[in-house]
What does this fold into?
Amino acid sequence: MHGRTRQKIYQFGNWIIDRITQTGSAVQMLLSAFGYLPHQFKNRKEVFRQMMLCGVKSFGVVSIVALFTGMILALQAGLILKTYGQEMRVGFLVAQTMFREMGPFMTALILAASVGSGMTALLGTMKVSQELAALEVMSIDPIRFLVAPRLLAMMIMCPVLTCYTNLIGIIGGGVVAGTQLSVSWTIYFENVRFMLYEKELWVGICKAWAFSLLIVTISCHLGITAKDGAVGVGLATKRSVVINFLTILIVGYIITRLFY
It folds into this structure.
């Protein structure tokens, strides 16, 4: 029994060491990609292509999710406020929640599930098919050629998509406020306008920027370190989505705690 306990402790220690090693490797990849960002002007066509994949092709899903998120927020908050005769304040609550939490959070989850998993699958396939090794043989750094353009594109498009999510969510909340809570659009958007001068908007953008770094770092690192053929690529893609979701939740809480 004593030997079995010692073996479990040994295995747990190895697991901790492996996680720390993987985290350090991912951070090193991120720092290397940051170093290559000034050189991406020469590779701007690839950056624009990645911006198209990250942002423009995600507008449809983001629009639907944002619209119904705003509607749900307005309905739930409005029903509670209505019991106190304060339903005209629903615009304030919807805007505050969208700016601070739901806008960057929902945008990051969508990008992690769609774009991030795609990055992992693509880079993982290139890794197991020896394409990354071929790039290194030709003296082409895979981080500069593959990771840096995706990092720059995500850093630009994630905050842009977050602002778009906020806008659509507020419009959805306005629809519910006007049709189900009898709150005029003038009063609703007056409350929303007040929130534009608060720090919630900038906290949300800060979160979006941090989430963009997380998504690219985790997705690309898991793709580059994939192994064991097609099965390994599938496992790496699955892990990418799970780890992205967990880190987005944790980092989102930490940022909120730091600012508030």
Notes: The chain is about 85% helix and 0% strand. The longest helix spans residues 90-128.
